[in-house]
Amino acid sequence: MKTLLAAVAISSLATTMPLLHPTPVAAGHAYSVSVNIHPNDSTYNPYQLLAPKNRRPAAEHVCEVSITDLVSAATFSGPKLLLVPADRQTKESVSGGYVVAVTASLSRDSRHATWDVTLRKDGKVLTRQTSDTQLQPRD
Fold it and tell me: Which stretch of 14-18, 98-102, 125-129 has the lowest confidence by average pLDDT?
């Protein structure tokens, strides 16, 4: 009887160990990078690109960045950049040992933007995104 109780106890302990000490998740993470570039104008709205073509775009644009770790759901906000036409800026922000570096540029006519976003920790690049986009349709 004691042997049976000992076997049941050991079996129960062995089956509950993964609950007490979960198996480590694979080291790989997936990241979502979100970049928002919009005019720094009180009249800015998502439908601005539908405005008449004779409307002049705002001189100054704001570039905001956030990166989300899709495994842990942690979000890292990057620095906020203020861009004027024909401008290029680079900034970094640090949070919890993570470094978000952003380089963004705006064309002379404010219709074209490029950016490079990098997330690093302990000097290692975790993710990087570069993009080149039209902010308004070409005439």
Answer: 14-18
61's CB contacts (< 8 A; 6+ apart) are 37, 38, 39, 40, 82, 83, 84, 106, 110, 113
Token pair 């042997």 in the structure block, residue: 3
Backbone angles phi, psi at 10, to 5 degrees: -65, -40
What are the start-end ranges of the E strands in the chain?
Answer: 31-39, 61-69, 75-77, 81-83, 87-95, 98-106, 112-121, 124-134
pTM confidence score: 0.66
Neighbours of 13 (CB within 10 A): 10
CA angle at 114 for the pair 61 and 42, rounded to the nearest 5°: 15
List residues bridging with 6 in a β-sheet: none
65-93 pLDDT, tens per residue? 999 989 889 888 899 999 999 999 999 99
Domain spans in the chain, listed from the N-terminal domain onward: 27-134
